[in-house]
Amino acid sequence: MPRISPVCHIIPSKVLRHLADRSEGAQRSRLLDSALLSEHLRGHRAARSLMMIANVTGEKNRSIYDCNRRSPASPTGKLVRAEGAGDVSDVTVNQAYDSTGSTYEFYSSVLARNSIDNRGMRLDSFVHYGRNFNNAFWDGSEMVFGDGDGQMFLGFAMALDVVAHELTHGVTQYSTPGGLDYQDQSGALNESISDVFGSVVKQWKLNQAAKDADWLIGAGILGDKVGHALRSMKDPGNRDVTWEGDDQPSTMDKYVEGGDVHTNSGIPSHAFYLAAMALGGNSWDKAAKIWYQALPLLKSNATFADAANATVDVASRTFGSAESDAVKGAWAQVKVLK
Amino acid sequence: MNIQLEVTGGFTGKAGKQSICLELEKIPDGVATEIRSLLGSIPPSAWGGSFLSNHPRPWDFKQELTVREEGKERTVTFHKGQGPAELTKLTEKILECGAPTA
User: Fold this and answer.
1) Staple A310 to which of A183, A294, B51, B91, CB 3.0 to 4.6 Å?
2) Of A30, A181, A200, nearest in space to A114 by CA
3) Nearest to A165 among B9, B11, B14 (CB)
């Protein structure tokens, strides 16, 4: 059973920063997280609900359900693997179990986050959703994966970045006050943040430095004749490395007014790539922490510029001027900042 | 009569667009009759409209329903659960009986 400590961290940010200055590693990160949140709460009444965040020490609690190719409006299915149970004969079930586990471990060990809601939320996944269902989605409380039609898509639960992408929609939902509206720039940010952590979790699992990563989203889930991946954070819109319908812009010069969230997400995703490359090392050492800590600073209708300013602010406070300049430079290259 | 429902969203966006196309003359009479009835119950003012959530979430798939009959075409765009209740009932019926074509 998870151990729950009913302690709310309502400590002045000055005190938290003072403590952080005298700490190292994960403890320093946690204290800086708390300081940022504390400052944020003072300025945003909408975030008051976050004051209920408690210091919960949880454990992974995964459940995988089989929809048996049905597609009801609210996913239902038979429980086929619960936390701690061994492999089953269904490979898709095991892949969903393993990938949600890896994503949980990333958030826990790298970002000191306790599951999706930071309070030990269960990780429920529904696999084999629908017939030939070419999609995966977060439904507000659980992850849902189709099997693909075998031609356009070969499946979804098999790809760690896809699973991490969907789980991150939940993290965004619980981290940004009111969630990020899934339309316009806030929607593109919502998609981008899921792609960012989808890629970072994959890199982390592979212990791969930023410069060695492929920065592709959904590599291997498309049919051979369709393409290699769904999106590229390194080179948005390059159909040679993705697929023939890739219409992602990489800079604001090609921003699509009123465009789909999966289209314009190319811009902030490319900014993350540029930041991670400029910062060097592993993407999760600094870049991912900066993006993650910026989430509570965003409003539900946040623009790209809001995200840029939030990440520059976090980089400056958490790391220093060199990191802040690197993040600012990345957003300038995609022409969100000047 | 030709009825087309396109559903877009989720991880794949337009790459995984679900497209269901029904030719009412080619499906069982009972189902066709039910769909015609549901279609007839949709307020005429809904056609040509857009019923999107003010604060959409990642699970709000965008749906576009197009009806073609005798050279005329009617379309309505909506998020699930938005717009007239009859639209939701019709969509559920189409999703229930339609075979994916894309």
Assistant:
1) A294
2) A30
3) B11
Altogether, the residues listed in chain B come to a count of 102
- B23 token code pair: 């030719």
Instruction: Give the burial class of A212: count Cβ atoms within 10 A of its Cβ; 0-12 exposed, 13-18 middle, 19 or more buried.
Output: exposed
Q: Which two tokens stand for residue A82?
A: 């619960």
Q: Would you say A249 and A256 are in contact if contact means Cβ atoms under 8 Å apart?
A: yes
H helix runs in chain A, sequence order: 13-21, 25-43, 91-111, 160-175, 184-206, 261-264, 266-279, 287-294, 304-318, 321-333
Residue reference for tokens 């999706």: A116
| A153 and chain B in contact, CB less than 8 A | yes
**Tens digits of per-residue pLDDT, A316-335?**
999 999 999 999 999 999 99
Distance (Å, whole) CA A211 – CA A5: 40
Domain ranges of chain B: 47-102
Q: Which two tokens stand for residue B12?
A: 């794949």
Q: Read off the amino acid at residue A274.
A: L
Q: Which of residues 29-68 of B touch A (CB under 8 A)?
A: 52, 55-61
Angle between helix axes A160-175 and A184-206 (nearest 10 degrees) is 130
Domains of chain A: 3-175 (3.10.170.10), 184-333 (1.10.390.10)
Q: Specify whether the CB–CB gap between A115 and A109 falls below 8 A.
A: no
Nearest to B58 among A73, A133, A138 (CB): A138
Q: Which of A143, A108, A113 is nearest to A128 (CA)?
A: A143
* Tokens of residue A73, six digits: 């409006």
User: Does A228 qualify as catalytic in the annotation?
Assistant: no
The encoded tokens of residue B43 equal 């307020």
A149, with CB counted inside 10 A (0-12, 13-18, 19+), is: middle
**A chain contacts of residue B14, beta-carbon cutoff 8 Å:** 245, 260, 262
Q: State the best of B12, B20, B91 to mutate against chain A, taking most chain A CBs within 10 Å.
A: B12
pTM: 0.86
Q: Which residue type is seen at B14?
A: K
Q: Which of A93, A27, A97, A101 minimizes the C-alpha distance to A66?
A: A93
Please judge whether A181 and B10 are an interchain contact, meaning their C-beta atoms are less than 8 angstroms apart.
Answer: no
| Residue among B13, B17, B58 whose CB faces A190 most closely | B58
